[in-house]
Amino acid sequence: MIRNITIIGSGVMGTGIAQSFALNGYRVTLNDISQEYLAKADIRIQADMETMIDEESISLLQKEQALQNIKYEIDIEKALELSDFIIEAIPEVLEMKWKLYSKIEKLISKDTIIASNTSTFPISRLAENASFANRMVITHFFNPAHLVPLVEIVKHEKTEESILAKTIELMRSIGKKPVVVKKEISGFIANRLQTALMREAFYLLNEGVASAEDIDTAVTAGPGFRWAFTGPIEIADFGGLDTWQRVFDNVAPELDKAVSAPNIIKALVAQNKLGAKSGEGIFHYGEETVSNKLNDRDRSYIQLNQIKKKDR
Ligand SMILES: NC(=O)c1ccc[n+]([C@@H]2O[C@H](COP(=O)([O-])OP(=O)(O)OC[C@H]3O[C@@H](n4cnc5c(N)ncnc54)[C@H](O)[C@@H]3O)[C@@H](O)[C@H]2O)c1
């Protein structure tokens, strides 16, 4: 039975993943390379839980119990001592991940399941030198990981079916919506769909078809509004496949087919205009605007989660 979860890497994703488990009664050990990062993670987790309390998604008691479930441990050996399930959430640098795997494989029991939160690496590449490929999976959470329900699960060709089944069950037990990626493919499912849409969004912006604000509104108030409950395949069925056949035949030839990042993005990156983190991207941001926007975003996601819990 899976009770003890070790999360390696307490950054953006590690802190969100830790909360999801701790709020559902699992004992979580969060590991990082410095006490300073672990202290920051503690502050972030407490602040996220405060927002959840404000939105009446959890009680003060649930917060206190969850915090008691989280241990911050800098010593990797101690962090892995009781571990049933490990989630690696360190930076997206293959050599760093390999180095970590070769260290941990000597420290874990033969039953421990090892998951990576990688967003880009194929599992065959990740497990290339690992002795634990039969017990390895990718569990790809989405930011903010304590609020977005989706977890994409990818198995290695050597991953045992029982390991996959346990991983799916574990994700469901913390209220997540796991989906299985059956073939090795770059971008998995959700980032492929998202990139396809964003390529077209930047094409429309570049062509001057609409303002950036209006393009965003065309998604959030239109298809995006529906997508929280009805996926594109069901939408095709509901709209009528004959109708969608005509939509594809008429519109698909006109869609952007670029195979690299949009020019607008390339030009802004070259000027170090990286978006919210540098104060300017497509839009301008003051420091307070960013934190207010993130806070508003999190509150909206918490409310959406409450509605989605009733989703059949
Ligand atoms: N940020 C996102 O939106 C997002 C979404 C999905 C998946 N991911 C993936 O999740 C993983 C983590 O991304 P992130 O955004 O949380 O990164 P991050 O930079 O915010 O956090 C990574 C943390 O790992 C720590 N770390 C580095 N080496 C370590 C080691 N050997 N042992 C223990 N800790 C170590 C760092 O100190 C840092 O605190 C990456 O693989 C990334 O591709 C990120």
Detailed description of the structure:
This protein is an alpha/beta fold. The chain folds into 2 domains: 4-181, 3-Layer(aba) Sandwich (Rossmann fold), CATH 3.40.50.720; 191-308, N-(1-d-carboxylethyl)-l-norvaline Dehydrogenase, domain 2, CATH 1.10.1040.10. It is built from 14 helices and 8 strands. It has helices at 12-22, 35-54, 60-69, 76-80, 94-104, 123-126, 161-173, 190-206, 212-220, 223-227, 232-239, 241-251, 263-270, 287-308, and strands spanning 4-8, 27-31, 70-72, 85-88, 113-116, 136-141, 150-155, 177-181. Strands 3-2-1-4-5-6-7-8 form an 8-stranded mixed sheet. Strand 6 (136-141) and strand 7 (150-155) form a beta hairpin. The longest helix has 22 residues, at 287-308. The radius of gyration is 21 Å and the shape is globular. Nicotinamide-adenine-dinucleotide is lined by residues 8-14, 31-33, 37, 89-92, 96, 100, 117-119, 140, 143. GO terms for molecular function: NAD+ binding; oxidoreductase activity, acting on the CH-OH group of donors, NAD or NADP as acceptor. One of its GO terms (biological process) is butyrate metabolic process.
Named CATH architecture of the largest domain: 3-Layer(aba) Sandwich
Order of helices and strands: EHEHHEHEHEHEEHEHHHHHHH
The major beta sheet can be summarized as: 8 strands, mixed
Mean pLDDT: 96
Bound heterogens, unique: nicotinamide-adenine-dinucleotide
Strand fraction equals: 5-15%
Strand order of the largest sheet: 3-2-1-4-5-6-7-8
Structure annotation, total helices: 14
Shape: globular
CATH class of the largest domain: Alpha Beta
Q: What Rg is obtained from the alpha carbons, in whole angstroms? A: 21 Å
What class, by secondary structure content? alpha/beta
Uncertain stretches: none
Assign a percent range to the helix content. Answer: 40-55%
CATH superfamily of the largest domain: NAD(P)-binding Rossmann-like Domain
- Kindly, what is the distance between the CA atoms of the first and last residues, rounded to a whole number of angstroms? 28 Å
Return the CATH topology of the largest domain. Rossmann fold
